[in-house]
Design brief:
By secondary structure, the chain is α+β, with helices and mostly antiparallel strands. Helix content is about 25%, strand content about 25%.
Length: about 180
């Protein structure tokens, strides 16, 4: 399933889709998060509208828990949590695990993450982690379940509909993206 298709990152450049709205922050030292949505305020949005949350991670500490908490709040705001069923709860936990893996990979292998973007449309939740690294993430092959480390992209590949890497030829770094199915 893993590919390196060139999908444009959802949050790059100004777009006609909507404006940035400030997100609530739990702590004054937390990095700035923003929300964007096509057409209307997020709270009263129709189900078909694309929703976007962005979190700057460049100078944050405790980046992985911060990214998970930020994503968890988006899932609450978008109605994925609290989950009504075991399947919906599992879908939300898969999203949080994939966020952890993508952000951890950026920390360990890509000179650190710059930004996390979480977007949702009617059928797909997309996670994007922009980093400063030039490497290419790949699931470790052969995968050895009993050995520590090296499972991040294997987990992403197994849980996601698709994933890949987008690069801007004029800039350093890359965006690693992953897409998961929205629960029915």
């Amino acid at each position: 399933m893993g590919t390196t298709q060139q999908h444009p990152p959802s949050g790059i450049g100004p777009g006609p889709e909507g404006s940035a709205l400030p997100a609530a922050s739990a702590a004054p030292t937390a990095p700035e998060g923003t929300s964007e949505m096509a057409g209307a305020a997020e709270a009263g949005s129709p189900a078909g509208e694309r929703r976007l949350r962005r979190l700057s991670l460049g100078s944050a500490s405790g980046i992985v828990p911060l990214a998970r908490d930020f994503t968890r709040q988006a899932l609450y705001d978008w109605g994925w949590l609290p989950a009504e069923s075991a399947d919906r709860r599992a879908a939300a936990e898969d999203v949080l695990l994939v966020v952890s893996e993508l952000v951890t990979n950026a920390c360990l292998h890509a000179e650190g993450p710059e930004e996390l973007r979480v977007s949702l449309d009617a059928k797909v939740l997309r996670l994007e982690v922009e980093d400063r690294g030039s490497g290419q993430p790949e699931p470790r092959t052969p995968h050895r379940a009993g050995r520590p480390g090296g499972h991040g992209m294997f987990i992403v590949q197994r849980l996601c509909l698709d994933w890949g890497v987008a690069r801007d030829p004029g800039a350093a770094g890359k965006t690693v993206w992953a897409e998961l199915a929205a629960p029915a």
